[in-house]
Amino acid sequence: MIRVRLAPSPTGKLHLGTARTALFNFLFARKNKGAFILRFEDTDETRSTKEYEEDIKASLKWLGLYWDEEYRQMERLARYREYAEKLIAQGVAEKIKGAVIFRAKKALDKLGIEYKTKVKAVKNKSDESQKDKDLNAYLVEDIGRDIIHGPIKGLVSDSVLLRSGNPPIPTFHLAVVVDDYEMKISHVIRGEDHLPNTPLHIVLQRLLSIPTPFYVHLPLILGPDKTKLSKRHAAVAVSDYKKAGYLPEAIVNYLALLGWSEKGKDKDKEILGLKELIKAFKLEDLQKSPAIFFKEKLDWLNGEWIRQLSVKELTARILDFGYKKVDERMTSIIQKRLKRLDEAPYWTDFFFQNIPYKKELLKGELEEKRALEILKLALTRFNKTQWKSDKIKIEAKSLAQAVNLKPKDFLYPIRIAITGRPVSPPLFESMEILGKDETLKRLEKAMAMLKNSSIRKD
């Protein structure tokens, strides 16, 4: 059975890179009717917090990446000690001042693995047991195979497996090998930054007589400047994108395109939902080269997903996002303009508040007398118009012809008077939603400004 896992350390919010790793694990599990496991590697007691754990879980749920089983390493400490004792019994690890140290040369000799003495690592000053010892490292080649990168090679070094303490805490190398075995992980799909750790993990697996899973090391996500994605490029936490008004569908869609592309007839299709991704996903379609994160592409995708929602659903999402004023009529006229949910107030605030603007904005490139003429004519004729957007539109076009102006020039001072901006949602639909009385009131207010160079306060 296919069993994969996401193993985040709860020392920070869910990072975009970790979210992409979760997505590819999830897609592979669901495609093959397997299990997706969430395992918190929480042995860094000084930095791991419940707050970060909850952020990771909430972010995964928001993205729709639900897991089947959940574990925490700090609840499994006895298991790691048992495996450390097995390594000590084989003579490939030793206890020093309460810590358990793995000896690479002894292990490689025992397994008959060829190696080259590559380096003597610097002293490990982070562990009391190693202050007076050099950690030797040995180069091994073709010790395994990665589905993306091919033959695995790298350094196998003397390493701390259990830190001294009461109780002793496992390091990443021991814990990950034990957990992947006991949780029956069939495929380890993780970031490329873990590739250098893999030779040591395979050696430990062979020493413990446990099977080696299939390895898939995903390419890194880089910023546009080809350096590792960081806050200087864009927000890096999934929860920050949620707060900024992005849709989970868009985040999932974009993360999938960072390092994976579908082969075949729909290879150029970019708008892909979770169900489509599950159906299309194949490990062999993963890319080897790093993926480049462009926020502009994410914004475009988010806008596309916003336009795929029904007006009712989009309104519900805007309300859930925290903007409690908008209704479906307003949503229907701003949907094509939105790139993010947090833009809804910008496009709709004029419905709910007095519009502050200056005389210069109101008249634009028109002469003040001309702008005043337009507003006066509009006020007179709109007062007699049936208050439906299509009727208002017909009347406005007729008025523009009557004063020998292009519609956009005629409507400019009216648009400013109604919305406060030269670019707004569709004007006639906005006027219908605003209502006849309020529309006429704003036209009167704009006329007063042009006459007196100031707006009368209500």
TrEMBL record:
Ranges of residues in domain Glutamyl/glutaminyl-tRNA synthetase class Ib catalytic: 2-300
Catalysed reaction equations from the record: tRNA(Glu) + L-glutamate + ATP = L-glutamyl-tRNA(Glu) + AMP + diphosphate
Limits of the Aminoacyl-tRNA synthetase class I anticodon-binding domain: 323-446
Gene3D superfamilies per the UniProt record, alphabetical: 1.10.10.350, HUPs
CDD domains the record matches: GluRS_core
Gene Ontology BP terms: glutamyl-tRNA aminoacylation
Major site of localization recorded for this protein: cytoplasm
Transmembrane annotation, as ranges: none
SUPFAM superfamilies: An anticodon-binding domain of class I aminoacyl-tRNA synthetases, Nucleotidylyl transferase
GO MF term set: ATP binding; glutamate-tRNA ligase activity; tRNA binding; zinc ion binding
Motif 'HIGH' region positions after renumbering to this chain: 8-18
Pfam entry (one): Anticodon_2
Summary of the function given for this chain in its UniProt record: Catalyzes the attachment of glutamate to tRNA(Glu) in a two-step reaction: glutamate is first activated by ATP to form Glu-AMP and then transferred to the acceptor end of tRNA(Glu).
Protein name: Glutamate--tRNA ligase
Species for this entry: candidate division CPR3 bacterium
